[in-house]
Each structure stands twice: as structure tokens, then as C-alpha cells.
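help with this.
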Amino acid sequence: MRNSDFISSFVAQFNRPDIIGKNCKFLQPVKEISKEIPQHTLMVKSLREALPTSIIITNIKKSGTKFYNLLSLKPIFDTENNYIFCMGIQTEITHDAINETDSQNIIELLNVLCNIIV
């Protein structure tokens, strides 16, 4: 997907100037969703401790409409086993239920991408 496709389809209703150079937190609801706090905590823990994880997050379109994403993270290590960064894949799941096969495909894609990078 090209960046222009991402902006027009995934983050519907946002213009390019609304997005470029901004942290993705602008997509988060103003008021924190209490049921997602454990997922955010898990994400922070996985980033700090170099652990793979997947969480579901709620985002908000410019109109205020909610949409949901599966965020999968995997740590990347160098040849000396030092944690150097994290790779993530975000998939919108608002309208399409994600099944076990989809989840496994995301994990396999992360594994392939991580092996190419190192």
C-alpha cells in the first residue's frame, strides 16, 4: 500500500497535512478507554523487555467514529543478540473479524521481515 492510499483509505477523513510528521497518538481517543489500559500496559512491557505481543487498540477518525486495529510487535536483535528495535504491523479489524489463520499469517510475516532486516 502506498502512503497516499494509507492516508485516504486507512485513516479516512484526515488530510495529508493532518498526519505528516505527527505521532500516531492523534488517532487515540481523548478519554482513555479503561478496558484497553491492560493492553497498553502489555505493549509497553513488551517494548521494554523485548517480547513479541499483539494487542487490539481503538482509534478515532476525524469525524469521531471509532475503528479498531490489531497491532502486532516483534523485537529485532542484532547478530550479538542485542535488542536494537521493534517491528510492528497494524491491521484494521473494524469490519472483518480476524481469525486464527489471519493471526498466524501476521506472525509469520513479522518473522520473515525480522529475518530479512537482521
Summary: The longest strand covers residues 66-77. Residues 56 and 105 are 16 Å apart (CA to CA). Residues 3-117 form a domain with the Beta-Lactamase fold (CATH 3.30.450.20).
